[in-house]
Amino acid sequence: MAEYIKYVDVTKCDGCRACMVACKNWNDLPAEPEEFQGSVQSHAKVTANTWNVLSFIEHEDSKGNLDYLFRHSSCFHCSEAACVKVCPEEAMHYTDFGTVDVNSDKCVGCGYCVQNCPFDVVQLATYKDKNGKEYKKAQKCTMCVDRLEEGMQPACVTTCHTDAMEFGTKEEMLKKAEKRLSEIKDKYPNAMIYNPEGVGGTHTVYVLAEKPSVYGLPEKPKVPTSAVVWKDYAQPIGKMMLGATSMALVGAFVSNKLFNKEGKGHEEDGGGSHE
Amino acid sequence: MSNTQYSGVKVKRFSKGFVIAHAVNALSFFALYITALPMYTEWFDWLYPVLGGPEGARLLHRIFAIAFITPTFIWLIMDPKGFLRWGKELITWKKRDLQFFTEFVKELFGFKFKHVKQTFFNAGEKINSIIQILTAILIIGSGFPMWFPDLFPKAVVQWAYVAHNVGFGLAIAVVVGHIYLSVIHKNSRPGYTGVITGEVPAEWAKDHYTEWYEEEVKKGNFPDLDKNKNKKKGA
Ligand code: SF4
Ligand code: SF4
Ligand code: SF4
Question: Do the record's keywords include 4Fe-4S (chain A) (predicted)?
Answer without folding.
Answer: yes
